[in-house]
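Human:
I keep going back and forth on a fold encoding question. Comparing notes only helps if you start from a blank page. Show me how you would write down a chain together with its backbone fold. Write it directly below this note and I will take it from there.

Assistant:
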Amino acid sequence: MRTLETLSGGEWVATGEWIEVHDPADLRTPVARVPALSAADVTDAYDHAERGFAVWKRTSPFERARIMTDAARLLRERVAGIAEDLSTEMGKTRAEATGETVKAADFLEYYGGIARQGYGTLVHDVRPDTRTHHQREPIGVVLAITPWNDPLITPARKLAPCLAAGNAAILKPATDTPQAALHFARALHDAGLPAGVLNVVTGRGSQISDALLRDPRLSALTFTGSNEVGEGLRAALAHTGVRFQGELGGKNATVVLADADLPAAAQAVAAAAFAQAGQRCTATSRVIVERPVYAEFTALLLAETAALRVGPGLAAATTMGPLVSARQRDSVLSDIERAVKQGATVLAGGDRPTDEALSHGCYVNPTVLGEVTPELDIWREEVFGPVVALCAVDSFDEAVEAVNDSVFGLAAAVFTQDLGAAHRFADQAECGQIAVNTTTSGWDVHHPFGGFRDSGSPFKEQGEEGLRFYTRVKTVAIHFGVRRGTERRKEEADG
């Protein structure tokens, strides 16, 4: 078992207490341990961040860009080791973990490029000889609380725009998956990030949450995770001036119309439902199929599901790894059991693998449920596992109604060869991310990302939109004409 230190004030530090990290493919042996910081350590991190912000906000944008670009290069150079650690703490396949590492580097490069540009706009002014512009500037110390399902790319998605804008940050990674966040911090540290600009707080939320949320130097909190925790954080900050960004739950739907390319739709649904063992906020978990093609599509989806190979993420043959923890595995199995009791039919999966070699891991077989109606909990509640529910409808309008019949509004997709239906779906589906003839997941670094309703807050992530949360607007008016009083004094002096 490796012992890892965490980054605080530009130094790698440890404490006397530890959090053990386990491989969900085999829980018997911990793979690493990280420091369990205390509330006093959190206050120290804010001290460092306050000093780091004073330096970083005055650092040349070109130097910020250089550091971020160098950190991206280091992530790519270290991709093999990072991907292995990511897989052993979260359960992703090697291919998924490698892709996540590369995408984290993409975020740093993208926002490093944007850091070289100015943030602002020239605006007209009714006053003569006056030029007015508004400029964006950093807001201060940002707290990022990130989840276990994307433990490298989510810190990158949040911290790259945060740092590009000139803020300092405190990163609180999930206790199940802290190694990836420490890799990200090390790349920035080794690239020359000034001390205190980024501080990583590894610790148990029950012991340090008050210290994280109540420090008067906190300017903004960005969070990705469950609705329960997100709403608690939002409530805790409600009477403060702290800005809140939340990327919360989803119950994403894919619609398959009768004219769709059914094999392509089945492949896309299987990829969106079972990649990362369904542990994606944009994973497809509801499939709404027009009745004339319901049976054919279901058969194709079951064939795609049967072709998956469940196993350890680092095994070459594995195409779907374990869930992140025994807790998450048991929660998903409980959701499936409840769905069956309420009337759903298990068409595939629904249980744990019987292979003895997998008996010590957090596995759930990829699951397809049929005869699901909107009244069932499985249709409405987020499961966050490899489970997809099927429902038949009789028309396009009924399909859109089923998509929108949810408290969530993150992502939705439609498969059709009708351009008119595609555009109508994009206009009528109440989700922040709309896909046509492709998966509900897979949004790139420059695509604005975020959901409606209970899926998140008004602030989008990614793209130029992602900078809005991390900046404040200052308007500047400059009068450059010669005033009359100045002219008169000049005439008197000349006369």
Summary: The chain has 15 helices and 20 strands.
